[in-house]
Specification:
This protein is an alpha/beta fold and about 290 residues long. About 45% of the residues lie in helices and about 15% in strands. It has helices at about 25-35, 50-65, 80-95, 120-130, 150-165, 180-190, 205-215, 225-230, 235-255, 270-280; strands spanning about 10-15, 40-45, 70-75, 95-100, 135-140, 170-175, 195-200, 260-265. Strands 1-2-3-4-5-6-7-8 form an eight-stranded parallel β-barrel, surrounded by four helices. Strand 3, helix 3 and strand 4 (about 95-100) form a beta-alpha-beta unit. The longest helix has 21 residues, at about 235-255. The structure holds flavin-adenine dinucleotide. Flavin-adenine dinucleotide binds near residues 119, 154 and 200.
């Protein structure tokens, strides 16, 4: 069945802790999401050495399975030499797109002792200088502003710096407030940012985890939503049902307000994202 709207969908995965390179569970997740004809699957970049190695393993695995893959690359423990090697590996794998971010450190780690890069725009500049226009580059954007930004203007100036350094588009942090996105797009235009700003969508999997995520990344957890989910805290099915309904409505509002792409933070689970996409009648179900 072909659906009516021509919206690009992408999915984020994180590299699981692997025993014997066992990707079986993730394979089922990918199979289920491939039905929606995604533009790509992106793979996050961890803060520790082993999780960074697992990013490369998962990227390899997806490419072997002919899945269009977009690895994330961060400043964490990233020397110029290491980045050159990683980019060469990605070129060999036929990777065409990257998500380039500063990256979050593990607690009690210290950044850039081992890094040649402090901010994402420096990575973008370096990658562009080294590889010209080989890669499409996405960077991160924050409709509710980055928690470490001095103020909203300096955060937008930073986003502009990343675009001027060569980024082709930005993917947003998740949010549950359509007005935040609409207002952010207006402000981007005021700052001369005209590239696509792709909404990052976090399906609601679990109330407690969402409390933690919102606290750690500085995204607003609207009071009405928190109270609604809190009421049903002990009923996993009710949380899932409410989550699917609320996030479907959020996506509908974003599409009405001009979003042309949706990027889903799947947390390596197919079901909530798949249900939202079915509600939206998006993608091509084979
Ligand atoms: P930057 O753009 O470098 O900005 C970081 C902060 O520094 C901002 O407050 C900015 O305003 C400020 N700043 C930037 N430049 C300057 C300057 N010159 N002077 C002063 N201040 C400045 N984390 C991971 O660890 N792995 C991932 O794979 C990952 N993927 C992500 C994907 C998306 C789509 C998003 C939205 C986030 C992702 N993150 C990931 C989280 C991200 O790494 C964190 O939010 C991080 O704290 C900021 O990353 P950034 O690229 O936005 O940083």
């Amino acid at each position: 069945m072909t659906f009516k709207k021509n919206i690009d969908i992408s999915f984020e995965l994180f590299p699981p802790q692997l025993v014997n390179n066992n990707f079986d569970r993730l394979k089922i997740v990918c199979q289920s999401l491939l039905r929606f004809n995604p533009k790509y699957f992106s793979v996050t970049f961890g803060a520790s050495g082993s999780s960074q190695t697992n990013t490369l393993k998962l990227v390899n695995h997806l490419v072997e399975n002919k899945i269009t893959t977009t690895p994330h690359i961060s400043c964490v423990n990233m020397t110029k030499e290491r980045l050159e090697k990683l980019l060469a590996q990605y070129l060999c794998l036929g990777i065409k797109q990257l998500v380039v971010i500063q990256g979050d450190l593990l607690e009690n780690d210290t950044v850039s002792k081992y890094s040649d890069f402090k901010y994402a725009y420096e990575l973008v500049e370096f990658i562009r200088r080294l590889t010209n226009n080989t890669f499409t580059i996405s960077v991160a954007a924050y409709p509710e502003y980055h928690p470490r930004a001095h103020n909203s203007d300096t955060d937008l100036t930073n986003l502009k710096r990343k675009i001027d350094a060569g980024a082709d588009n930005a993917i947003t942090q998740f949010f549950y407030n359509t007005d935040a996105y609409v207002n952010f797009i207006d402000r981007c235009h005021q700052f001369g940012i005209t590239v696509p700003i792709i909404p990052g969508i976090m399906p609601i999997h679990n109330y407690k985890k969402l409390l933690k995520f919102t606290a750690s990344c500085g995204a607003e957890f609207p009071l009405w939503l928190r109270k609604l989910l809190h009421t049903h805290e002990k009923d996993d099915n009710a949380i899932k049902e409410i989550g699917i309904k609320i996030v479907t409505q959020l996506c509908e509002a974003l599409l009405r307000n001009g979003a042309t792409d949706l990027h889903f933070y799947t947390l390596n689970q197919a079901e909530p994202t798949a249900n939202i996409l079915k509600n939206l009648c998006l993608g091509v179900i084979k």
